[in-house]
Records
---
Amino acid sequence: MTNPPFKFQIEARQDRARAGKFFTPHGDLETPVFAPVGTQATVKSLTPDQLAEIGSSLILANTYHLHLRPGDELIKEMGGLHKFMHWSAPILTDSGGFQVFSLAKNRRIDQDGVTFRSHIDGSKQRLDPEKSISIQENLGADIIMAFDECSDPYDKEYVREAMLRTHSWAERCQQAKTRSDQALFGIVQGGISEDLRQESAGYIANLDFPGNAIGGLSVGETKSEMHTILDLVDRVLPEDKPRYLMGVGTPEDLVNGVSRGVDIFDCVLPTRLARHNAAMTRFGARLNIVNAQYARDEQPLDQQCTCYTCQNFSRAYIRHLIISKEMLAATLLSIHNLHTLIDLTHDMRQSILAGQFEDFANHFHQVRAEIEFSKASN
């Protein structure tokens, strides 16, 4: 199943943490890697040049949204997603499954696919494994995802039904795929059930995709439950393929994920927080910059941060932009929040290469615990 342009090379390990490279037609991804989310073929409020300056090497675009608007056929006519959005580095597209199950109205699921109403205009739509692959081939991303069903993690009976559909749909996606310059990843489902997750990880692993994703987490389960599933899946998925934890993106989740063998992450959180006036910090604390306490604060968002925002602007200035409803506020906060996560994954990679990841992770958790204790004491 593995396509010739795609190879995963593990450069160093420390316990279960890995530093590697995934080779794609649009460049090599150094892992661990965090991918900003560009749902509508744009990472909100940022230009491609700004993303490159932050250090972004991979971005995610959304199959469901781009199919509905402007249309995947139009994007194909325009030369594909890389040319359309002026991004020369690797792109990953999701399958559209999560959006169908979370956004679409009046959806009807059967063994072949899903019929639903567009959240934009209410028009009747149909998405199945073959259609998802066709859309993603039109978009032209380097990494594409098998069509899956993400369900309520606590409804075990239904989770099993959705998992079996996901397995069947994964095989159909393999059969439908025609482009050799795209890496199709399978997706492990199974909710928080250990036996279902083990079954799903084994099934997906046996299909020999170039990479494997872990779906259906960060959807309401506890952190402890997420870690249990990641521990289990890590023992089943093949070591020589990249692992992608879908939709997870807090600093602590990145450190805990890398500790459990995860290589690729994505999340809308950093840009969403930016649009809601919040700054992320390396150890997980968040600053609500609209608060009056920052009105005369000359400090940068994070004194240890080297991003463009922190090197040039004060908390007071960014608060002024927010209060004045200036668009630049979201841009500066997005630059900072994304830089925080990308810089963290870069430093984790370097610590693995240097054989120091255990010390890195222990320091991270210690500082985070001290911050949480201080917050609780106040």
---
Amino acid sequence: MHDLKWIRDNPAPFDSGLARRGLPPTAADLLRLDGERRAAQTGLQELQTRRNDVSRQIGAAKARGEDAGPLMAEVARAKDAMQNLEARERAAAAALDGALAGLPNLPAADVPDGADAGANVELRAHGRPPAFDFAARQHFEIGEALGLMDFESAAKISGARFVVLKRELARLERALAAFMLDLHTSEFGYTEVLPPVLVRDEAVFGTGSLPKFADDLFRTTDGRWLIPTAEVPLTNLAADRILDEAELPLRFTAHTPCFRSEAGAAGKDTRGMIRQHQFSKVELVSIAHPDRSAEEHERMTSCAEAVLQRLGLPYRVVVLSAGDMGFAAQKTYDIEVWLPGQGAYREISSCSNCGDFQARRMQARFRKAGEKGTRFVHTLNGSGLAIGRTLIAVLENGQRADGSVVLPEAIRPYMGGIEAIAADV
């Protein structure tokens, strides 16, 4: 949510920020609704003052034995006028809130301009893509040949964009999650959380998925939402709270299932595990001091990168253009892992600084010691990492000509010490 006072003071910069997102100017419409709301509020205050004054005059007139009829008629007219103004104020406020809720965060000044991913800028690359003396296979070819990845059974049970993993691959998924959580908690200071995966409207609104992206989510029959990412419950741990400045930053991590309808993804990544309705992810969330959120953003990204470095997986980091960022993001780094089967880098983590955008929506604030006033916190989130895509990267980068897969050394203790996954002979 945007700061309306800032928009009043800076309408041109606000519209310029929206233009970088590819959106038309909106400040004038917002300020018109704001003017209507404030005019109604002012009218209500004036009428209430007059009504109170006339009510006192009625009492005085009756005490003197005078006719109070005209004064009572004026009070009745004021009541009707106030009801009309209250309706106008509610309508203007609802329209204003709805308009603000549908507008994305403004890009930071150092975010590259551009309409889509074609304008993203690579910042750094780590590791060298493996060179094979055979034709690299994609993860689903490897998994199916091993007999450990079953899309046909999943389709019978649930439909498209689901998978059944078996034996070593099922264990590998669990092992990767445990490895990531251990790294983030023991070395990077994140607090592990096991949050609900069913949340209310307010929680999804707070992080920015509602109202605009309802079609991307799954909703239950009782009105709750299946989380698209643990960002939703973790960030909402700060909702409607006033934290002490000394508590910041709060750093949370969680391993949860995630659910996405993939609306608009028809024809994209239809084979394999890249884009599914259900997947698991280790999420990172920070609730940070506004003066240090940029530093926290760099730190969070380095924590996500460390997972890939420990697993020996080649990757690159790109900063997203203004037109390619998510709705709530002010600035985003994407970490893209190399997939030999596709011969391409694919996103495995997005680390975003949302500034105070989400905090305003969920009323997450902090107070400096000795001060009465409060400030909004800054919120950050990132994948640390997406488990399924990490599994894909392990399979494709560790594949051998005979169909087996060499496991990264860092994950072997979580796999009972085995060094490779091989097909049954």
---
Amino acid sequence: MAGRDLEAIARGIYEGLEEDYLEDRIGQVNYLGQRLIETGIPVQKPLGGHGVFVDAKKFLPHMPQEQFTGQSLVVELYKEAGIRTVELGNCAFGYKCPETGKDICPDQEFIRLAIPRRVYTDRHMDFIVSAFKNIANNREKIKGLEMIYQTAIMRHFTARFRLL
């Protein structure tokens, strides 16, 4: 690694030990989580220190998990506001049963809103909440996805989908 990169890692480690920094970092994640909760967006509790996990199954109860509920919400959030997030559900942790070809879905279906350190302001967090409000107003119109390509291992890295 370049010396600059090593120094950045070292600074990050030292900074992560500063209580004022940790209070601010955890506070920003808590701010986003509380605002989403106030808006009626189902999130995983307790809120963490690096991001907020939205419960896609509760947010889109009309959509069968086999239609990739979390991935569908990821797509909608990107279309609505250009917000990139990640699905942690059927695409990431599900699999096709070799005997039946049927999707075996995990119990949970989340999307993770990871908050990089020292990048975003509370106004950015408010923008995320506003995007979720807009999506929530039309959530019953959100369509599921069909996976049209997957690899045998770690399918979520290269999967391709078609809108249903």
---
Amino acid sequence: MTTIRELMSVVSIAVLCGLGAGCTKKPVAAIPPVPPSVRASAADTNTPAPERARPNTASTPKPAREVAETRYPDKKTLATITELLGRIQDAYFDYNKHNLRPDALATLESDSRHLAEIVRQYPDFKMKVEGYCDERGSAEYNLALGDKRAESAREYLVAQGIPKSQLVLTSYGKENQVCNEHSEDCWQKNRRAHIVAMAKP
């Protein structure tokens, strides 16, 4: 009968499967765990934009060397300053006086405003205002008088816009004479105030 044959077929298949002849199921490969780095990356991706760590956009401070260089003029600017100082002639004084005469005012005014516009940008740049006297009088008296002459010149330059902190006073009294003859013409040349750039600190 057909039914008996079908039954026998089913029994045979069951027996074969029981013996592991070909009906064993293939084991399912275990899924490896997700690496921590991948989990962290995925979590960061799913985090809303406002909550994510943002890069530090704060400006970093300039190195001390770079800051120092901006406080002192470069070679090109220094050459311009030197040229301007060369145009400003010495301011001359009357005998035993330290007040600026009209011709001395005109001399100091020459290019001093332009000079002020430049040097104000470089706080570390300094100039020396030198005061001189003629050979007459004691050394001590002439040192004091030379200091007053340098101070008068500095006050005028400050009025033109040059910061006082960038002008250093020095009195040479009757030392470093530019003329050594014993005449009024020569003495007049020695009674003066002179401005010179100082070396870089």
